[in-house]
Every structure is written in structure tokens, then in C-alpha cells.
Amino acid sequence: MQYRTLYSLLLTTAIYILVGCTAKVPGSYTEIDKTPEIHPNYSGVTIPYNIAPLNFAYTMEGEAFVTELQGDGQTLVTKGKEARWNIKRWHQFIEANKGKKVKINSYAKTGEGWVKYRTMTWTIAEEPIDPYISYRIIAPSYVTYEELSIRQRNLANFDESMIYNNMLQSTDVDGQCINCHSYKNYKTDNMQFHVRQHKGGTMLVTDGEVKKINLKTDSTISAGVYPAWHPTHNFIAYSINDTGQSFHTKNNNKIEVQDLKSDLILYDIDNNEVSFIEHDTLEWEVFPAWAPDGKTLYYNSAHYEIQNFAGREREIIDNYKKFHYNIYRKSFDPETKTFGPAEMVLNADTLGKSATLPRISPDGRYLLFGMAEYGCFHIWHKDADLYMIDLKTMALRNMRELNSKDVESYHSWSSNGRWILYTSRRDDGGYTRLYIAYFDKNGRAHKPFILPQKDPYFYNDYYKSYNVPEYMLEPVEITPQEFARHIEQPAQSAVFKSQNEKVTK
Fold this sequence. Notes:
Oligomer: single chain
Number of helices: 4
């Protein structure tokens, strides 16, 4: 049986190679001034030289198809309505053409013979993309929240593996949720994610060692939520949030997530200590993000004064459109663990907007964030777009080259600052997909392209969303089973350390 399987595999491989070798450009054809219709629409994109093949399918009519990649002194040819590239030859081709434009010539056979469509182009960037990304795979929360997982993908090919599967611990009786995976300096030997509800705690990996921490103390409103690893010291900044979720029946923005309370804390990993960064009853702080040098902390905050404390939750839900989040920053001395006063970076409220998720480019030059009409959790807000501030000039602009008519959210910078990864609902309005865009030295993003899959029609039948995409320089080596073993264990409780906070809730 093993020999038969091996033989079948070798035969399939040989046939595939033979087909690739025998694909030829038609000897005669008629040129037509029409762009070929392809899915996904990869025409005119800039791609890294170490990305997996951009397989696509022709959606126009034709009896047969041939696709030719034409580069610097070499070509790559495949045939079929689906242009699927031999991965080894693909990498040889794009690496040989980095820093250059390559042509995509499309030929289709019709009843009247072969035609050649208008030539498309790809630009192969000189800068590579980080070799791995990770993300959470999740169904809409109005359907289920337990069937979710954190996964990682090798960007040079189509290999995807599990970091942790929530169903390893979740049961019909004891529900569980996992979220907020993050890494220190793009390395996976220092990482974290949260386990909520059943056997809850923060799974913390430091120097490759796994432990389970309870970040909730008697002085704080919750355990840590949205994390930001300090780049040079063993600290993690968190928002802590008392969060509610509501669902619309008629509004296109199907889901609203509101914070009933929120603060910012600093977790000192070495001393297992939690202390306040911001603790103001009039401010709703969320989404901390460090500058690359670790000397400045950016975050979002909305000002709101509760009128009816007895009916606090009802009041916030009824007034959720009044929450407009601005962007602030605070200086930080890592040696003394002290923060300076809050400084406003962007008053989004005066623009009639609400800002969220600040992320600083690795060179410290650019601040990428999202904005919508209100609130801080924009994954279902149709008007949510990406914006950027040049921190050198403080110029603000809409990243129109990245945005669509639907939701853009959850964005990340590659370690070299040349590739932006984010989620978008532009394809069908229902599910978020991952898009990648080149960000050049002049501060401009190029046309984004969807994360490549082996099957060009993969997303058509994939009924789950990608969220919280993060770049990685290496894969997570800890197995899901090892994480599950540590989740089974009791959590070590963090200790609260007062720093004479100005306001007590």
C-alpha cells in the first residue's frame, strides 16, 4: 500500500512537471486591446521577491488559455484556465527579477483562433517580506465564538499550521475563547495570547518558556486585553476593559463592542507586577502601541462623563455614537518605569471621527491607524478606513490607495517597514480577508493584493474571517498540545503595585 501511494505521488509530480515543460506560447495570435479578467485581481501589484505564487483564474470565456511571465531574459509559462505556477520555478523567476517589472501575457483560444490580451505587469520589490504571518480564524460572533484558532502561514509557500485550537479545551459545558496573540520584536520566543472564561489566563512565553498568568488583580477592572510588547525591556503594556457586545438587526454595522470601563496598565514580566499607566474615570483608554525605541507609548482614548452611575451600562449602550477616540502619547523611561503626561497626537473628535489601533512603522516615521464615525472596535463599521500621520511633519492623510467601500481594520507593519498587512471586507462585505501592500520609501502604499492561496477560488468557499494579522520572523515552535497542557494548570497571579494614580475608580 505504501509503495502504491509513493508511486502515485511520483507519477502525479512527473505529470505536473511535464505539463509545465510543455506549455507553450501560441505561434500565431491576434492582439486585442482588452485587459484579461482574472480572479483574484492581481493586475498591477507590487510583490515581494519571496512570496508564494500568485495563482489566478481567468473568468472570461475561452476554449484554452496560456499565461506567460516575461522577465529579464527569462520566461515562465503555464497553461489552463487557472494559472498555477510551479513553486520552485516561480521563486527562481521572481528572485531573478527583483527590483524590476515583469510582464504577464495572457492568451485565450476562441472559435476564431488564439487572441492575446493587453499585457499586465507586476513589480517585484527589492525588499523581502517577513517569512511568516499569524492570524486568528473566526466565524462571525453572532454565529459562534468557540470554533476559532490562531494559525501561522509560511508566506513563501502555502503551508499553514496551528498555533492553538480553541476546541482543545472548550466544551459544551465550559466555553472558552482565545485572542490577542502578539510577539516581541517579531520573534516568537517571546509571545502571548489570552485564554478567556474556562481555564482563563494569559499564556506568556518568555525566552521559549511557557507559563500561565492571571493579570486580574483586586485593584484592576479586568485581566490584560490588548497587548503591546516593549521592544527593549521585559514589559507589556495592556489596556484593561470591561467590555460589552451588542448586535444590530437592521444596521449594516452588525456588531457593536463597547467598553463600560477601560484603563491602561504596565506588566513587569520579571517582577510579575501590574501598575497603572492611565486610570482616569473620564477617559476610555485602549490599544497601547510602543514606538520602536520604547521611549514613547501611543494609545487611543475617548472622553465621556457618566451621568447616571446606577444605569451606567444602559447609558453607554444608548450613547455609543458619542464615543470619539483620539490618539495620545506618553513619554516613557524604561529604567524607572515612569511615564510623562499625556500629549494629544490627533484630535479625531474635531474631524467628526473616531481613531483606533495606532501602529508605528519600524523606523518611527509613520503612524498607521484606523478611523470611523464612532467607537474603537471598527471591524463591522462599513466606513472604517486606514489613515496615516507622518510623525516628522504631522501631516494626516487618508490611505485611499489601501481603502475600499467596506471595512478596513487590524493592520501591521513588516519588520523592514515595507509591507503593510491588514484585513478588509471588500470582497463580499461579510468576511475579512488578508491584504498585503507595498509601502515605498516615499511614504506611499501601492495597490494591495489578497493573501495568495494555492486555489485561486479558495476564498469563494471559505466562510470564516481572518483577524489580528501579525508578521513574524520565525514560526511558533511550541505545539498546540503543549499550550493546552499549560492551560490546564493554575495561573500564577500578578501582583498590583500602586504608583499613586491620580484618580481612583
